[in-house]
């Protein structure tokens, strides 16, 4: 049984829509009504379930692809929004993957550790205190993606906002990540084992969902 099923609820809704999702909408509705931590967001989250229920599977799939696969501003890969093509993204990936493995959580060959539904699935399996700590670390990026989705009128914005509302930490705005020349990085560091990315080595022992410089401070006179 999931330790924190609310994270699993969000994870499933953020995945590519399949027939099984629509078949289980009544179960998602029941859970939404029963979990107290979602009650302040219930109205908006209900509107998302209504969106799923009022469109064909093909329409849902086409919108999902247009929203997340064809628009990098909405990408559900957390590190893309803070590292861009910077080589530190690889180190962050290694650290997050090690975090998963330390708690017995293994990914499939086609999954990247910073994919938000994967992170949420992981949070659903670990002790609540640890899940809250990791969510507090990642919430700045999650809120950033949610803001982009809201600006573009996406129904998925309410899901990111709902996750943000669960965080014990208030999100801070992010600076857009730099764009690095990957060819130059390949020449400097050499290719990794796949031959498609620069050779990267982990530089920290704990997960860092963002570099310190990724925050755009709102304080003045500091």
From TrEMBL:
Q: Which domain of life, per UniProt?
A: Bacteria
Keywords in UniProt for this one? Nitrate assimilation, Oxidoreductase
Q: What would be an example GO MF term here?
A: metallochaperone activity
Q: Where does this protein come from, organism-wise?
A: Neisseria wadsworthii 9715
InterPro entries found in the cross-reference section? DMSO/NO3_reduct_chaperone, NO3_reductase_chaperone_NarJ, TorD-like_sf
What does the record give as EC number?
1.7.99.4
Name recorded for this polypeptide: Respiratory nitrate reductase, delta subunit
Top-level enzyme category? oxidoreductase
Give the record's GO biological process terms.
chaperone-mediated protein complex assembly; nitrate assimilation
């Amino acid at each position: 049984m999931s330790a924190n099923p609310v994270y699993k609820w969000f994870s499933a809704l953020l995945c590519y829509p399949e027939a099984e999702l629509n078949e289980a909408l009544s179960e998602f509705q029941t859970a939404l009504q029963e979990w107290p931590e979602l009650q302040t967001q219930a109205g908006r989250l209900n509107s998302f379930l209504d969106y799923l229920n009022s469109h064909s599977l093909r329409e849902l799939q086409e919108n999902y692809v247009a929203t997340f696969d064809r628009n990098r501003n909405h990408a559900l890969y957390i590190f893309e929004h803070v590292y861009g093509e910077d080589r530190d993204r690889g180190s962050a990936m290694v650290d997050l993957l090690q975090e998963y493995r330390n708690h017995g959580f293994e990914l499939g060959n086609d999954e990247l550790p910073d994919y938000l539904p994967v992170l949420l699935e992981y949070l659903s399996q670990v002790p609540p205190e640890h899940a809250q700590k990791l969510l507090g670390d990642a919430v700045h990026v999650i809120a950033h993606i949610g803001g982009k989705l809201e600006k573009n009128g996406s129904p998925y914005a309410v899901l990111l906002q709902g996750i943000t509302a669960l965080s014990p930490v208030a999100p801070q705005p992010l600076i857009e990540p730099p764009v690095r020349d990957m060819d130059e990085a390949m020449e400097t560091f050499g290719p990794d084992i796949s031959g498609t990315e620069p050779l990267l080595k982990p530089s920290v022992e704990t997960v860092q969902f963002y570099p310190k410089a990724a925050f755009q401070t709102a304080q003045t006179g500091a």
